[in-house]
Amino acid sequence: MQMSYAIRCAFYQLLLAALMLVAMLQLLYLSLLSGMHGQEEQDQYFEFFPPSPRSVDQVKAQLRTALASGGVLDASGDYRVYRGLLKTTMDPNDVILATHASVDNLLHLSGLLERWEGPLSVSVFAATKEEAQLATVLTYALSSHCPDMRARVAMHLVCPSRYEAAVPDPREPGEFALLRSCQEVFDKLARVAQPGINYALGTNVSYPNNLLRNLAREGANYALVIDVDMVPSEGLWRGLREMLDQSKQWAGTALVVPAFEIRRARRMPANKNELLQLYQVGEVRPFYYGLCTPCQAPTNYSRWVNLPEETLLRPAYVVPWQDPWEPFYVAGGKVPTFDERFRQYGFNRISQACELHVAGFDFEVLNEGFLVHKGFKEALKFHPQKEAENQHNKILYRQFKQELKAKYPDSSRHC
């Protein structure tokens, strides 16, 4: 009996050792397999999920460095530019969402962070010394409490040249210093801000929209330049990345993202089906429908809404550029900059789209992605100074079109 028991123990010990050997060999095999494919898998992962953001201290140090530089004057000498209050590491082939805003309108940034999964670049305009200080304090608070801001957002500041932004003192943020979360920062901003139209600042300072646009898209290969109170459709960034990664044929093409506006911003459509439901009952309409119908009409909204449903983002049809079309688009390569002589309101985006056309770019409308502006755009009423500036831009646009003939002497296109 004792011999039989010993034999059984020896057998079980041998079996256990064999099982452990098999397990170790399997682990060794998996390790070797992981070594062979690990880099490929890591590249695929980081293609859509960026590395961990920098620490709060690193971001704050960058903010202090940018402010301590004193900024640089723009070409006109009217504005002081602070680049890189916040910075983010971006893949050169990525698609950047570039936007601009006055300080009060930065509260829209929260919605953009939710919908746009990729990098964002924001140019902020502070019309007064007090606003410049609020902008730096707000950047300080956002970088402290919002991981997405640290990971995905680049932020720049522009103010009149006679002002200089100061490095926030630890005691300066006041009530912002008491905040403990990203949501609390945006909630606080919503209480202190008086959001409105960017160019209706109530000061004698002109809103430099084209300077801000150039600054936001600076250094980007592909960029979608939008207004801060617009929201992209869900998954637009990922769809653009996949489409652009699969083919290199988009050089010289402006991929147009159809733009709409919604009556009530409480219900922002996420996909095309939701958009079309609201479109059919009049809650959504083409962008600028009540303000400048020809400015968006070439997009051909009737054709777009009747396209067959598809899962993959792709160009659906080609549209020839017509004056005064000012589409929102994604384009890479040698994209003309926005002419910074245009300020305030009128002809600032039309002029850039016009040059894009003369430079040889073709316009193709995407099938599924879209933008939605919060609220219906209605006819604008300016006080005399702003109306005079709008008339100035109209005259400048005529001059601009003549200048393009000399700039592109070999082009057969004109505006």
From TrEMBL:
- Single GO MF descriptor: glucuronosyltransferase activity
Primary location? Golgi
Going by the UniProt record, its keywords in alphabetical order are: Glycoprotein, Glycosyltransferase, Golgi apparatus, Manganese, Membrane, Metal-binding, Signal-anchor, Transferase, Transmembrane, Transmembrane helix
What's a single GO BP term from this record?
protein O-linked glycosylation via mannose
* Localisation per UniProt entry: Golgi apparatus membrane
Q: In which pathway does it act?
A: Protein modification; protein glycosylation
In terms of domain of life, where is this protein from? Eukaryota
Q: Which residues form a coiled coil?
A: none
Cellular component terms, GO, for this chain's entry? Answer: Golgi membrane
Reaction equations catalysed: 3-O-[beta-D-Xyl-(1->4)-Rib-ol-P-Rib-ol-P-3-beta-D-GalNAc-(1->3)-beta-D-GlcNAc-(1->4)-(O-6-P-alpha-D-Man)]-Thr-[protein] + UDP-alpha-D-glucuronate = 3-O-[beta-D-GlcA-(1->3)-beta-D-Xyl-(1->4)-Rib-ol-P-Rib-ol-P-3-beta-D-GalNAc-(1->3)-beta-D-GlcNAc-(1->4)-(O-6-P-alpha-D-Man)]-Thr-[protein] + UDP + H(+)
The way it spans or sits in the membrane comes to: Single-pass type II membrane protein
Q: Which cofactor(s) does the record list? A: Mn(2+)
Task: Give the family, as the similarity comment puts it.
Answer: Belongs to the glycosyltransferase 49 family.
Q: Name the chain's protein.
A: Beta-1,4-glucuronyltransferase 1
Q: Which organism is it from?
A: Rousettus aegyptiacus
Ranked from the top, the taxonomy reads:
Eukaryota, Metazoa, Chordata, Craniata, Vertebrata
